[in-house]
UniProtKB/TrEMBL annotation:
Its main location: other. Residues 438-541 form the Flagellar hook-associated protein 1 D3 domain. The gene is flgK. Keywords: Bacterial flagellum, Cell projection, Cilium, Flagellum, Secreted. Belongs to the flagella basal body rod proteins family. It comes from the Bacteria. It holds the Pfam family Flg_bb_rod. The lineage of its organism: Bacteria, Pseudomonadati, Pseudomonadota, Betaproteobacteria, Burkholderiales. Residues 91-325 form the Flagellar hook-associated protein FlgK helical domain. Residues 335-415 form the Flagellar hook-associated protein 1 D2-like domain. It comes from Duganella zoogloeoides. NCBIfam families: flgK_ends. This is Flagellar hook-associated protein 1.
Length: 651
């Protein structure tokens, strides 16, 4: 091996080193670029008889400094960061909406009950009644406005899901194409470092959209899986994702595979995790659905309980009160996969504010029975009997199922989902506000005893056919027998004293107990004191209730009454709980996002310590290779001089 060849090999090696170092420097700020380094080895030496003499050097490869473990660690931190960031951006909108001191629900709900109290204080005032109607309309409008804003957020989430799926498909196709190209270029043993960097950057960007898992395959090809193991890229094949309206809820976009023939196969939401897409789906299925349902629960409970009490009152025209708010119907959506021959129809009406929950329900037909499954905890209640003779009440909702079902029919029932949107005021005439009680009681001055009768109240039984009083009922006390007589025929009488209730058949004398609660036909009252023999007490219809506000007081009292959640929360207390839950979730997401940011910084530093370009180090390498280049050139210069000397000796 000549000295000239040795110098030439060193010159070429230094030139590759300079090129590689220069490439590192110029790409230092390129996202996804991985530092490269020259791996230089000596060539085999030759035996000259006097020993082995070196023959020079060569560049065996240009190495890519890449640590797969650190890269996966960074991707894991980034997908978690993207998920939490997407979740927080969305839930902060709900938090701001619900907790706003002026645009939230609390101030307008307070105004509504203030209006009820003012009308109760002045039941004959047309202005006070009109003001009550105005505050009612304002309350309904606020519920509707908040619901509309939540629906806007929901539509925005759907739009982002569609956009994210489109980006995922684009990245998957590019990765599959690069897999194919890299496999073709890797057959000689050398790796196309720039293409590997490009592919890894695509995987990084994809990982920010959805959590991915990368599996190394043959010939430097990668398999990319998403979520819990669903394939996105296998070799040079990219699977296509798509979106479509969920089969059981058209308000939601579901994610699934799209076959070459265009058939869409949905994936369960739980398998799409991590990244922006996973964060959006988690937000929609937890925070957004929860906020919509809980806000609707307040609206439905308020409407139902207020209606129930309003119907027990009497308006200025002397008629029993009607519905103040229009009844709340459950949102029911039949599954699009139900059999075409099925004619089954499910309806739900909110009837009991106290039993109402914020859960959704799945109604399924197993071929024999309909089963109602509460999705929050999986509790199942069977519709019995079926076919129904009357609606069946489950968790405050009256289910009415008609038609001929087919096996595996499925219906999604959301009792409170649209309640805030659907809350409207049914009364538009101030005179039809039922502030008075429909019954009055009295005792003649001529009574000889000291007994007094309380103002009468009514319950839901008073609304049953035949129970409403058409004429006064006169009760007479028989001192000898210690009984009251004169109760209406056909109506049993109940007496509640000391916590015990006794029922007496219609038409019989009822023993008198001082202070006991007496009831018949939905009417209740108390007689206290000592009645004299022959003393009478009257219970009759209210014929002059213009100035009466007894039912108005009961309506106003609903504000502080534990109506919701099985009698454990007021309307404002339940709403405050919604605000608190959303606020806590937003705070948790913010804390998690901050922690994720720190994790990304740490993982990035660890990854860059191996794969990143250090300009100071590259500057030193540049000088080193420059000196090596100059030295190798000097070797070649000396070899040329020596060769010229040999040629001159031969002349």
């Amino acid at each position: 091996m000549s000295l000239l060849s040795i110098g030439r090999s060193g010159l070429l090696a230094a030139q590759v080193g300079l090129s590689t170092t220069g490439n590192n420097i110029t790409n230092a700020n390129v996202p996804g670029y991985t530092r490269q380094g020259v791996v230089q080895t000596d060539t085999p030496s030759q035996n000259t008889g006097a020993g082995f003499v070196g023959t020079g050097t060569e560049v065996s490869t240009v190495r890519r400094y890449y640590d797969n473990f650190l890269a996966n660690q960074l991707r894991g931190a980034e997908t978690n960061q993207a998920s939490l960031e997407g979740f927080y951006k969305q839930i902060s909108q709900i938090d701001n909406l619900l907790a706003d001191p002026t645009a939230g629900l609390s101030p307008v709900m307070q105004d509504f009950f203030n209006g009820v109290q003012n009308a109760t204080a002045s039941p004959a005032s047309a202005a006070a009644r009109q003001s009550m109607l105005s505050t009612s309309e304002s309350l309904a409008a606020r519920f509707q406005g908040m619901s509309a804003r939540l629906n806007e957020i929901s539509e925005g989430v759907n739009s982002q899901i569609v956009s994210s799926v489109g980006e995922i498909n684009s990245f998957a196709r590019q990765i599959a194409e690069l897999n194919n190209t890299i496999a073709g270029l890797s057959s000689g043993g050398d790796l196309p470092n720039d293409l590997l960097d490009h592919r890894d950057q695509l995987i990084t960007d994809l990982n920010k959209l959805v959590k991915t898992n990368v599996v190394q395959g043959d010939n430097n090809m990668l398999t990319v899986q998403m979520g819990t193991g669903q394939p996105l890229v296998v070799g040079n094949t990219a699977f296509t994702l798509g979106t479509a309206q969920a089969a059981n809820d058209p308000s939601k976009m579901s994610v699934g595979y799209v076959a070459p023939n265009g058939k869409f196969t949905p994936l369960p939401d739980k398998v799409v995790t991590g990244g922006q897409l996973g964060g959006l789906i988690e937000f929609r299925n937890t925070a957004l659905d929860g906020a919509q349902n809980q806000l609707g629960q307040v609206a439905a409970s308020l409407a139902t309980s207020f209606n129930a009490q309003h119907q027990l009152g009497q308006d200025q025209n002397g008629a029993l009160g009607g519905t103040f708010f229009n009844p709340i119907q459950a949102y029911v959506n039949p599954n699009t996969n139900n059999a075409p021959q099925s004619t089954a129809e499910v309806k739900g009406t909110v009837v009991d504010a106290g039993k109402l929950t914020a859960s959704d329900y799945s109604v399924d037909f197993d071929g024999t029975n309909f089963n109602v499954k509460r999705l929050s905890d999986g509790q199942v209640t069977q519709i019995n009997p079926f076919p129904q003779t009357e609606p069946q009440v489950i968790d405050g909702v009256a289910y009415s199922i008609t038609g001929s079902p087919a096996q595996n029919d499925n219906f999604l029932v959301r009792p409170t989902y649209a309640a805030a949107k659907d809350l409207t005021v049914a009364v538009n005439d101030p005179t039809k506000i039922a502030l008075a009680a429909p019954v009055t009681t009295g005792a003649p001055i001529a009574n000889t005893g000291t007994a007094k009768i309380s103002a009468g109240t009514v319950d839901q039984n008073y609304l049953a056919p035949g129970n409403a009083l058409a004429a006064p009922v006169t009760l007479t006390f028989d001192k000898t027998a210690g009984t009251l007589t004169g109760f209406p025929a056909g109506q049993d009488v109940t007496v509640t004293a000391n916590g015990n209730t006794t029922t007496y058949p219609a038409g019989t004398a009822v023993p008198f107990t001082d202070g006991a609660a007496i009831g018949f036909g939905g009417v209740s009252f108390n007689i206290t004191g000592a009645p004299g023999n022959g003393d009478t007490f009257t219970v009759g219809p209210n014929t002059s209730g213009v100035g009466d506000s007894r039912n108005g007081a009961l309506l106003a009292g609903l504000q502080s009454k534990n109506v919701m959640n099985n009698g454990t929360a007021t309307f404002q207390g339940a709403y405050a709980q919604v605000v608190n839950v959303v606020g806590n979730k937003a705070r948790e997401a913010q804390i998690g996002m901050n922690a994720a940011d720190a994790a990304v910084v740490q993982a990035t530093k660890a990854h860059q310590s191996v794969s990143g370009v250090n300009l100071d180090e590259e500057a030193a390498n540049l000088l080193r290779y420059q000196q090596a280049y100059q030295a190798a050139g000097k070797v070649m210069q000396i070899a040329s001089t020596l060769f010229d000397t040999l040629l001159s000796l031969g002349r």
